[in-house]
């Protein structure tokens, strides 16, 4: 995994600037261009394959599904066919089943689905594909490997930077932590941005807040080996909490649920930071634990791509979500609002403005 991951990151570093040039314009419009049944969109069939996290992950699979469903409703198209994958071995067969059912556009979710998506797209050049969270650039030449695939990707390091600064500023123990599902770029980008935000807080305030679970120099850290909410994820969270952590960022869909169990078992105040969606809204059962969430506009980006495709205007140019185009961001502090000092909130807004205007550069494989 480490060798593969290094090769992947190397390739992504090559594509960053080229992709950003294509994708850093305005964020996808949430209302899109409505074709409706009268435009012929009623014959259009959008489809989707989840990764192993499933559509009820309260995270990126769920957001992608919401985007597809909203687009179908706006278009007046056929009801989307949406297939859940239980394991990586399901990806190819699930994609083929959608091809066989006459899908016009197929949305795939996640880095791990990219090889199967490429194989399917290459075999079916007349179909359209939307890849959430991966550029599908297996040869690392800076271009998506098939002209009928549109990548929707997110420079979440920018938003994670803000969350890291916030975490450091609210920590009472001086130790914050993070862990992920797999050490792949779309996971580690959160962890690395988070650590950079903590470093900035330390520099600004002469502090020494420590990050447990991610080593920026080694580009490695604590990982569960998958994206399931299971006892391995709980134990991984527990091992980090045991190091006096009082703010914890789990990155990997449902694994936050296992982290929440470990937090409650700890019997002391520990804040969670969610990812992808505003987890306070998608999963109220953990709302009291959430300091904030690092957001991706997956639902909006997916809806925009499907609406365009349904209206006959499929565009394969990558969309890259940033703070500037509001493709990424951080959620409201909700129940933790009264525990975040006003001056810290103001500082977070200042940092956001500086990232947008280029005064601050957050390192990531997507940074231009």
From TrEMBL:
It is found in: Cell membrane. It is a lipid-anchor. GO terms for cellular component: plasma membrane. InterPro entries: BMP_lipoprotein, Mycoplasma_p48, Peripla_BP_I, PnrA-like. The keyword Glycoprotein does not apply. It comes from the Bacteria. Residues 1-22 form the signal peptide. The keyword Nucleotide-binding does not apply. Keywords: Cell membrane, Lipoprotein, Membrane, Signal. Gene3D superfamilies: 3.40.50.2300. CDD domains: PBP1_PrnA-like. Residues 48-362 form the ABC transporter substrate-binding protein PnrA-like domain. PANTHER family: ABC TRANSPORTER GUANOSINE-BINDING PROTEIN NUPN (PTHR34296:SF2), TRANSCRIPTIONAL ACTIVATOR PROTEIN MED (PTHR34296). Belongs to the BMP lipoprotein family. This is Basic membrane protein A. It comes from Microbacterium proteolyticum.
């Amino acid at each position: 995994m480490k060798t593969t991951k290094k090769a992947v990151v190397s390739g992504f570093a090559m594509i960053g600037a080229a992709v950003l040039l294509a994708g850093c314009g305005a964020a996808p419009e949430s209302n899109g261009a409505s074709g409706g049944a009268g435009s012929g969109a009623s014959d259009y069939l959008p489809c989707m394959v989840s990764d192993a996290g499933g559509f009820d992950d309260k995270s990126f699979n769920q957001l992608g599904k919401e985007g597809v469903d909203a687009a179908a409703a706006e278009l007046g198209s056929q009801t989307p066919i949406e297939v859940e994958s239980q394991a990586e071995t399901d990806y190819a067969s699930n994609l083929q089943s959608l091809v066989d059912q006459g899908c016009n556009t197929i949305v795939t979710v996640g880095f791990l689905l990219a090889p199967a998506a490429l194989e399917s797209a290459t075999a079916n050049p007349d179909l359209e594909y939307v890849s959430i969270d991966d550029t599908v650039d297996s040869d690392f030449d800076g271009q998506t490997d098939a002209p009928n695939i549109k990548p929707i990707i997110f420079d979440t390091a920018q938003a994670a930077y803000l969350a890291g600064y916030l975490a450091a500023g609210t920590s009472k123990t001086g130790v914050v932590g993070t862990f992920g599902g797999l050490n792949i770029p779309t996971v580690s980008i959160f962890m690395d941005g988070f650590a950079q935000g903590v470093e900035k807080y330390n520099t600004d305030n002469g502090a020494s807040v420590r990050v447990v679970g991610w080593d920026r120099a080694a580009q490695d850290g604590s990982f569960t080996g998958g994206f399931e909410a299971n006892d391995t994820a709980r134990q991984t969270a527990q091992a980090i909490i045991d190091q006096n952590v009082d703010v914890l960022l789990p990155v990997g869909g449902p694994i936050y649920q296992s982290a929440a169990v470990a937090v409650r078992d700890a019997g002391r105040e520990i804040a969670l930071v969610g990812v992808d969606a505003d987890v306070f809204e998608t999963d109220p059962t953990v709302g009291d634990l959430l300091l904030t969430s690092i957001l991706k506009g997956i639902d909006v980006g997916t809806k925009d791509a499907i609406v365009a495709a349904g209206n006959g205007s499929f565009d394969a140019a990558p969309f890259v979500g940033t703070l500037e185009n509001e493709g990424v961001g951080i959620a409201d502090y909700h129940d933790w609002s009264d525990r975040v000092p006003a001056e810290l909130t103001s500082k977070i807004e200042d940092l956001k403005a500086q990232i947008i205007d280029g005064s601050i550069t957050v390192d990531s494989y997507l940074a231009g």
